[in-house]
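Hi everyone,

Forwarding the result from last night's run.
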Amino acid sequence: MTDAELTILSLVAEGPRYGYEIQQIIDERGLREWLTIGFSSIYYILNKLEQQNIVTSRLQPEGRGPARKVYSITEAGRGILQTAIADLLRQPRALGSGFELGLANLRALKPRQVYQVLRHHRSDLQYNLDAVEKAWQRHQQEGTANGDHILALYTHSIAVMRAELEWLDTFLNDWKTRYPGVEQDNPSDDTDPSTADTRVNSRTQSSDPVKMIQRLKRLPKPTDE
């Protein structure tokens, strides 16, 4: 099941939904920041799930207007949804992609470049950690840190970022020992196109970590059914 299918099915599991209503909820909860899906894709996915007997639909009259199709999750669909969520929680993060893929190809950069980009990575990570920790402290002080899913989201994010910061500090200190002078800027390297400043990242900057967690925590927690 794709991320888009899982998200739409999860929204339908909350209660019967119109296709347009699902579109509105996706926008309201900011799900588009981590999910790529267009309006037409929603109906395509709903039709696909209906063909698989994961959801059912019925026409509901709307006053003088035309009847609208309402989608509901089936018992089989609820079981599939719960299994998919359990699988996501059970499996560790995949290796060989993203940051790990960059680490696997360190030799493509000069030692000074490796040091610079990892320092930049550490700076961004520290900023994110500070923001999430402050948000978590505020929730605890205001008594709004209720719900197992909220506790899990914040404590997991904080633990993972702290562990990565610890690893970065150890690795960077070891890197300086192995390659003395990497902290010093060397403008002559910038004249070589193959050693262009690696601090410029072509990827889109990640969203505000606190806002992302705020939106994720509003997702419904799975039922015990």
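Strands lie at 17-18, 55-62, 65-73.

Cheers,
N.
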